[in-house]
Amino acid sequence: MNSTVDFYYFSGTGNTKAIVDFVIKVLKIHNVRTSLNRMDNGYMPSNSANDLWLAFPVNSQAVSPFIWRFFRSLPQSNGTRVYVIATLNNSSYILEPLSTLLKNKGYLPTLACEISMPNNMLDGEASPDDDQNRLTAAYKKADTFVRKAIGGESSWNSEYAGSRAVSFLSRRTVLPWMSMRLMLRLRTVPSKCMNCELCVLQCPTGNIVVVDDLPYHGYKCDYCMKCAANCPRSAIVVSGKDNIHFRNARMHKSTMEQ
Ligand SMILES: Cc1cc2nc3c(=O)[nH]c(=O)nc-3n(C[C@H](O)[C@H](O)[C@H](O)COP(=O)(O)O)c2cc1C
Fold this sequence. Notes:
The protein is an alpha/beta fold. Helix content is 34%, strand content 22%. It folds into 2 domains: 4-165, Flavodoxin domain (Rossmann fold, 3-Layer(aba) Sandwich), CATH 3.40.50; 183-251, Alpha-Beta Plaits (2-Layer Sandwich).
């Protein structure tokens, strides 16, 4: 492992960011420094031969379109090692297609893991016991992952089998995203919104604009849920689906870093 790694991540509801923060601490203990960047800010050209670390949430069995575009935007490489952490709930099919994409660009997919995290888009009540169990296992797995990386191990296996068909549609077509944009319309509740425009600033697809002093959610949403999970007033809801609510991983962070 190099003494500095280039680390790119994206986190919508905070799960991936919590794992990334933890991983960076563990890397530091092992004297590995991190150059941290957000995927939604694009790839920053780097002349060095640093290893590349990627961390992102699984969405619709694959990743949100803007994250897949980030992977596709990576420059050609001459054997840069890649380390991947995907956070998810329980099913995905992303490691294999990502490995293919990376290999085609000349990278060396070296070590990957999937980390199951609490769901932050809740339909009804949360389950504190389930959350706690996932978090305990998640931090243990992240720690093991770094130790394996430091020890020079390589493996690229998916633990949470998912739908190849849905993953294909998510990566290659707009179908899953179009149907979510139609069925799960996000809107801001006027009486709760305090016009801080945090949602506008944070949206990775530029989907939110202010119209008549109120954030308007357009039809470019990639369903990362960053807006809803970070709204200080929980003012962003799914239209017509009162049961669905959002939380940020900060809400369970106290139990996370143990
Ligand atoms: C719209 C949406 C779609 C999701 N799709 C999947 C999925 O297909 N498989 C899965 O295991 N988890 C899925 N999840 C759960 C997230 O991958 C998981 O909560 C992840 O840790 C979120 O990371 P973040 O908080 O960094 O955004 C989905 C979450 C959302 C909001």
